[in-house]
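1st attempt posting a full record on here, be nice pls
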Amino acid sequence: MIKLAISGVWICAVTLASVYFSLQVASETSNPKEETEFFGGLDYVRSDLMSIPAIYDGEVRGYFITRLVYTAEPEILNSLSLPPEMLITDELFSLLVGERVIDLTRVEQFDLDAFRIVVRDRLNDRLKKKVFHEVLVEQMEFLTKAEVRNRARQRRLPPPPVKSVGEEG
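the predicted structure (as tokens):
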């Protein structure tokens, strides 16, 4: 019984010593300066999934659905009085619905690079300093009203009945 207790204490001591040693070695080999240089010292701000109506002649023609990721200066982001996601959402709606800087009803003429530049520059102009460096697209699509209706109908329809083996029909 004593041998069992001593061997249990010995196993615990060896395990703790090996964990401590591995943590010491890992902290000595990792260089946090290299990691921040790799990412350029920027934070990533991920916007919510947004559905923006494409309005033309007073009628909704479809929906522009997007989720964007922004690279930004962390010091300035932390000093903002409101969350950056709110600022980004407000600016996107102002650009695309209020001022109609980009015409979402003409999807074939949509210029993704121009869209990124306009969004980035407008956000920086609003803050009166260069905070946002890049706009990255995580998800983007345009759905017409007919596509939205078809998807809604498909969700409401009951699934087709499952036939059992040997059943004719």
